[in-house]
Amino acid sequence: MAARARWQRVPLALLAVASFAPDFVDLALRALRVCAPAGVYSHSLPAAAALAVLCGAATALWQRSWAAGWIVVALVLLHLPADYITGLKILWPGGPIVGLNLYAHPMADFALEALIAFAGWCYLRARDQSSLWMRSWLTLAALLAMQAAMDTIGSVKPSGCKASTVSSNGRAHVGRSA
Fold it and tell me: Residue 113 above 60 pLDDT?
């Protein structure tokens, strides 16, 4: 929402897709039953960098704007620090798994994510005068309800991995699903 408030020429849907691009890759891999422990193919630094370049270049060509492309690159990459706070993600293939894993504490996760959603909504509300629905209290309520549902339900993504554990050295050990 903050990106939309700052760069109003870039469609909100595009900014939203860019913000969640690593999760969309993760969902696709899991739907295909590809074992990708701790987001190795979607959330690791090399995977996110490649995804950011791909999405940024596609956006620059589609929107005919290098600025829009760079915004998308930034949003894809900014997904990682947020996931290092909320979850556990691998830094690079064979590398350590890092994160605060707030998902293990749903109330804390909800509090942090609700605060971020509220701050983004307030920033958008103050700067973007074109989209009444985005500035509506109902939009904020819907965002908070979706976050509460995700924290209540937990992960709804199917796993492509049979079992995943983290050893004392912080490396993932995964059994392949049949």
Answer: yes
